UniProtKB/TrEMBL annotation:
<protein>
    <submittedName>
        <fullName>AcrR family transcriptional regulator</fullName>
    </submittedName>
</protein>
<dbReference type="Pfam" id="PF00440">
    <property type="entry name" value="TetR_N"/>
</dbReference>
<keyword id="KW-0238">DNA-binding</keyword>
<dbReference type="InterPro" id="IPR001647">
    <property type="entry name" value="HTH_TetR"/>
</dbReference>
<dbReference type="GO" id="GO:0003700">
    <property type="term" value="F:DNA-binding transcription factor activity"/>
</dbReference>
<feature type="DNA-binding region" description="H-T-H motif">
    <location>
        <begin position="34"/>
        <end position="53"/>
    </location>
</feature>
<dbReference type="InterPro" id="IPR009057">
    <property type="entry name" value="Homeodomain-like_sf"/>
</dbReference>
<keyword id="KW-0805">Transcription regulation</keyword>
<dbReference type="InterPro" id="IPR050109">
    <property type="entry name" value="HTH-type_TetR-like_transc_reg"/>
</dbReference>
<dbReference type="InterPro" id="IPR036271">
    <property type="entry name" value="Tet_transcr_reg_TetR-rel_C_sf"/>
</dbReference>
<dbReference type="GO" id="GO:0000976">
    <property type="term" value="F:transcription cis-regulatory region binding"/>
</dbReference>
<feature type="domain" description="HTH tetR-type">
    <location>
        <begin position="11"/>
        <end position="71"/>
    </location>
</feature>
<keyword id="KW-0804">Transcription</keyword>
Length: 193
């Protein structure tokens, strides 16, 4: 039984680290946040912090997974992706409130293009899930006559993700760029109504 308790305590500490790291990155950004600050805030040394993760990069990738949990509360895509449009706009609006996490996401997603990066599989799976869900949503909207027919739904889904990610970069460089408005403009271009 003690082994089980230690395991549960380890999981709880890992979740505490992720929650605090999420807050620190949201407040300070990717470059200004330090592992020492995160470790201190949860009562660990840096070595103790990294005991719960195989590397700093794995910690960052896990923080992004945690961010996805928070984002899903900010914008509901719908279990069957029926709320994809409004959900995506809601998530993007929420992201404008957490610039440090947008910066972390943009930085780590670019680094994770390397197949050896600890976050590589996370991003591959995340994009597959989002593109697949948006494709399903767009296909159903095309069938209902609300989205232009004749354009491949998967291509439109990839374009929607590209607009969202590209607007994040533009917004980091120019905070007056409205990410959510850009997504809404994209949808208005493909809608028939």
């Amino acid at each position: 039984m003690p082994e089980r308790r230690g395991y549960a305590k380890g999981i709880a500490k890992r979740e505490e680290i992720l929650a605090r790291a999420l807050e620190v990155f949201a407040e300070k950004g990717y470059r200004k946040a330090s592992l020492r600050e995160i470790a201190d805030s949860v009562g660990l040394s840096q070595a103790g912090l990294l005991h719960h993760f195989s590397s700093k990069e794995e910690l960052f990738a896990e923080v992004l997974r945690k961010r996805d949990e928070v984002d899903s509360a900010a914008g509901d895509l719908g279990a069957d992706w029926s709320g994809a449009f409004d959900g995506l706009v809601g998530i993007v609006r929420h992201n404008a409130e957490v610039p440090g996490l947008v910066q972390l996401y943009a930085t780590i997603s670019a680094e994770a293009a390397d197949p050896d990066h600890p976050g590589h599989d996370y991003f591959v799976n995340r994009y597959a899930l989002i593109v697949g869900g948006l494709e399903q949503y767009i296909r159903s909207e095309q069938a209902a006559g609300r989205v232009r027919a004749g354009v491949d739904p998967r291509t439109l889904a990839r374009l929607a993700v590209a607009v969202a990610d590209g607007m994040q970069v533009q917004w980091m460089l120019d905070p007056s760029a409205d990410m959510a408005d850009a997504i809404e403009a994209f949808w208005s271009l493909i809608r028939t109504e």
